[in-house]
Fold this protein.
Amino acid sequence: MKNISLKTLVTALGMSFLLGASAPALEIEGVQIPQQTTVSGQTLQLNGAGLRSFKVLLVPIKVYVASFYSAVPLRTAADAMATQGPVKFNFTFLVAVDQGKVADAWNSQFKASATATYPGLPKDQAAFVSMFGPLKAGGVQSVEIEGNATRMYDGGKLKGTITGRDFQKAFLSMWFGPNPVTSDLKAALLGS
Protein backbone atom coordinates (compact mmCIF):
# COMPACT_ATOMS: atom_id res chain seq x y z
CA MET A 1 0.00 0.00 0.00
CA LYS A 2 1.26 3.43 -0.92
CA ASN A 3 2.16 5.85 1.88
CA ILE A 4 -0.10 8.89 2.06
CA SER A 5 1.28 12.11 3.47
CA LEU A 6 -0.53 13.89 6.28
CA LYS A 7 -1.01 16.92 3.98
CA THR A 8 -2.72 14.74 1.33
CA LEU A 9 -4.95 13.12 3.96
CA VAL A 10 -5.97 16.49 5.43
CA THR A 11 -6.66 17.86 1.93
CA ALA A 12 -8.79 14.82 1.07
CA LEU A 13 -10.74 15.05 4.32
CA GLY A 14 -11.26 18.77 3.77
CA MET A 15 -12.56 18.18 0.25
CA SER A 16 -14.94 15.46 1.42
CA PHE A 17 -16.24 17.84 4.11
CA LEU A 18 -16.78 20.60 1.53
CA LEU A 19 -18.52 18.22 -0.85
CA GLY A 20 -20.59 16.88 2.02
CA ALA A 21 -21.68 20.41 2.91
CA SER A 22 -23.67 20.59 -0.33
CA ALA A 23 -25.43 17.31 0.39
CA PRO A 24 -29.07 17.38 1.49
CA ALA A 25 -29.55 18.12 5.16
CA LEU A 26 -32.39 15.69 5.41
CA GLU A 27 -34.37 13.01 3.64
CA ILE A 28 -37.98 12.28 4.50
CA GLU A 29 -39.91 9.55 2.66
CA GLY A 30 -37.37 9.67 -0.17
CA VAL A 31 -37.68 13.46 -0.58
CA GLN A 32 -34.29 15.16 -0.54
CA ILE A 33 -34.54 18.40 1.43
CA PRO A 34 -31.76 20.90 0.69
CA GLN A 35 -30.14 22.84 3.52
CA GLN A 36 -30.71 26.13 1.71
CA THR A 37 -32.91 27.89 -0.81
CA THR A 38 -33.13 31.45 -2.08
CA VAL A 39 -35.86 34.08 -2.17
CA SER A 40 -35.16 37.22 -4.23
CA GLY A 41 -31.46 36.40 -4.19
CA GLN A 42 -31.29 36.02 -0.39
CA THR A 43 -30.12 32.68 0.96
CA LEU A 44 -32.47 31.05 3.46
CA GLN A 45 -31.57 28.15 5.74
CA LEU A 46 -33.70 25.10 6.43
CA ASN A 47 -35.64 25.88 9.62
CA GLY A 48 -37.43 22.53 9.78
CA ALA A 49 -39.23 19.85 7.80
CA GLY A 50 -41.76 17.12 8.41
CA LEU A 51 -44.32 14.71 7.03
CA ARG A 52 -48.04 15.42 6.68
CA SER A 53 -50.16 12.33 6.98
CA PHE A 54 -53.70 11.54 8.02
CA LYS A 55 -55.63 8.38 8.75
CA VAL A 56 -58.36 6.83 6.64
CA LEU A 57 -60.04 3.95 8.47
CA LEU A 58 -57.06 3.84 10.87
CA VAL A 59 -54.62 3.50 7.94
CA PRO A 60 -52.07 6.34 7.77
CA ILE A 61 -51.85 8.02 4.36
CA LYS A 62 -48.61 9.95 3.74
CA VAL A 63 -49.60 13.05 1.77
CA TYR A 64 -46.66 15.46 1.53
CA VAL A 65 -43.33 16.50 2.97
CA ALA A 66 -43.25 20.14 4.07
CA SER A 67 -40.02 22.11 4.44
CA PHE A 68 -39.74 25.60 5.88
CA TYR A 69 -36.85 28.01 5.20
CA SER A 70 -36.02 31.29 6.93
CA ALA A 71 -33.31 33.94 7.01
CA VAL A 72 -32.95 33.59 10.79
CA PRO A 73 -33.89 30.61 12.98
CA LEU A 74 -37.57 30.65 13.96
CA ARG A 75 -37.87 28.22 16.87
CA THR A 76 -41.12 29.37 18.46
CA ALA A 77 -44.62 29.69 17.06
CA ALA A 78 -44.66 33.35 18.12
CA ASP A 79 -41.47 34.06 16.15
CA ALA A 80 -42.83 32.27 13.07
CA MET A 81 -46.16 34.11 13.27
CA ALA A 82 -44.41 37.48 13.58
CA THR A 83 -42.03 36.99 10.66
CA GLN A 84 -42.35 39.17 7.59
CA GLY A 85 -39.81 37.00 5.87
CA PRO A 86 -38.35 36.24 3.71
CA VAL A 87 -39.50 32.68 4.37
CA LYS A 88 -40.39 29.85 2.05
CA PHE A 89 -42.48 26.70 2.34
CA ASN A 90 -42.09 23.76 -0.04
CA PHE A 91 -44.74 21.05 -0.14
CA THR A 92 -43.58 17.92 -1.99
CA PHE A 93 -46.52 15.61 -2.58
CA LEU A 94 -46.06 11.88 -2.16
CA VAL A 95 -49.32 11.01 -3.91
CA ALA A 96 -50.95 12.27 -7.09
CA VAL A 97 -53.73 14.75 -6.38
CA ASP A 98 -56.26 16.01 -8.93
CA GLN A 99 -57.32 19.67 -9.20
CA GLY A 100 -60.51 19.22 -7.18
CA LYS A 101 -58.74 17.47 -4.32
CA VAL A 102 -56.02 20.12 -4.25
CA ALA A 103 -58.67 22.82 -3.88
CA ASP A 104 -60.62 20.80 -1.29
CA ALA A 105 -57.47 20.15 0.74
CA TRP A 106 -56.40 23.82 0.85
CA ASN A 107 -59.95 25.01 1.62
CA SER A 108 -60.36 22.42 4.39
CA GLN A 109 -57.02 23.40 5.88
CA PHE A 110 -57.90 27.09 5.92
CA LYS A 111 -61.23 26.26 7.59
CA ALA A 112 -59.68 23.97 10.22
CA SER A 113 -56.45 25.83 10.98
CA ALA A 114 -56.46 29.49 9.93
CA THR A 115 -57.09 31.30 13.20
CA ALA A 116 -55.87 34.71 12.02
CA THR A 117 -58.89 35.84 10.04
CA TYR A 118 -60.01 39.14 8.50
CA PRO A 119 -62.95 40.29 6.35
CA GLY A 120 -61.13 39.80 3.02
CA LEU A 121 -59.90 36.27 3.77
CA PRO A 122 -62.58 34.40 1.73
CA LYS A 123 -61.61 36.37 -1.40
CA ASP A 124 -57.86 35.98 -0.83
CA GLN A 125 -58.28 32.29 0.03
CA ALA A 126 -60.20 31.68 -3.21
CA ALA A 127 -57.44 33.44 -5.18
CA PHE A 128 -54.76 31.41 -3.38
CA VAL A 129 -56.48 28.07 -3.98
CA SER A 130 -57.10 28.84 -7.66
CA MET A 131 -53.36 29.19 -8.27
CA PHE A 132 -52.66 25.49 -7.69
CA GLY A 133 -53.35 22.78 -10.24
CA PRO A 134 -53.32 18.98 -10.14
CA LEU A 135 -50.16 17.31 -8.86
CA LYS A 136 -48.23 14.22 -9.81
CA ALA A 137 -46.48 12.26 -7.09
CA GLY A 138 -43.30 14.26 -6.49
CA GLY A 139 -44.97 17.54 -7.49
CA VAL A 140 -43.99 20.62 -5.50
CA GLN A 141 -46.05 23.62 -4.44
CA SER A 142 -44.21 26.53 -2.81
CA VAL A 143 -45.21 29.65 -0.91
CA GLU A 144 -42.85 32.58 -0.34
CA ILE A 145 -43.51 35.37 2.13
CA GLU A 146 -41.46 38.51 1.73
CA GLY A 147 -42.33 41.98 2.91
CA ASN A 148 -46.01 42.49 2.07
CA ALA A 149 -46.16 39.84 -0.68
CA THR A 150 -47.13 36.17 -0.59
CA ARG A 151 -46.08 34.41 -3.80
CA MET A 152 -47.36 31.02 -4.92
CA TYR A 153 -45.44 28.62 -7.14
CA ASP A 154 -46.72 25.41 -8.68
CA GLY A 155 -44.08 23.14 -10.18
CA GLY A 156 -41.51 25.95 -9.87
CA LYS A 157 -43.63 28.43 -11.89
CA LEU A 158 -44.89 31.62 -10.30
CA LYS A 159 -48.69 31.47 -10.36
CA GLY A 160 -49.53 34.68 -8.56
CA THR A 161 -49.11 37.01 -5.61
CA ILE A 162 -51.43 38.06 -2.82
CA THR A 163 -50.55 41.38 -1.20
CA GLY A 164 -51.17 42.16 2.44
CA ARG A 165 -49.96 41.22 5.87
CA ASP A 166 -53.42 39.90 6.86
CA PHE A 167 -53.20 37.02 4.40
CA GLN A 168 -49.68 36.20 5.55
CA LYS A 169 -50.87 35.94 9.15
CA ALA A 170 -53.77 33.70 8.12
CA PHE A 171 -51.45 31.43 6.12
CA LEU A 172 -48.84 31.25 8.88
CA SER A 173 -51.53 30.48 11.47
CA MET A 174 -52.33 27.22 9.63
CA TRP A 175 -48.87 25.94 10.50
CA PHE A 176 -48.00 27.82 13.71
CA GLY A 177 -51.31 28.89 15.26
CA PRO A 178 -53.30 27.14 18.02
CA ASN A 179 -54.98 24.72 15.54
CA PRO A 180 -52.07 23.72 13.28
CA VAL A 181 -52.30 21.22 10.44
CA THR A 182 -50.85 18.76 12.97
CA SER A 183 -48.92 19.44 16.15
CA ASP A 184 -46.15 17.08 14.99
CA LEU A 185 -45.70 18.99 11.74
CA LYS A 186 -45.75 22.33 13.60
CA ALA A 187 -42.92 21.11 15.85
CA ALA A 188 -40.97 19.72 12.88
CA LEU A 189 -41.20 23.00 10.92
CA LEU A 190 -39.92 24.86 13.97
CA GLY A 191 -36.94 22.50 14.13
CA SER A 192 -38.09 20.89 17.39
Notes: The two ends are 47 Å apart (CA to CA). The longest strand covers residues 42-56. Residues 1-24 have pLDDT under 50 and may be disordered.
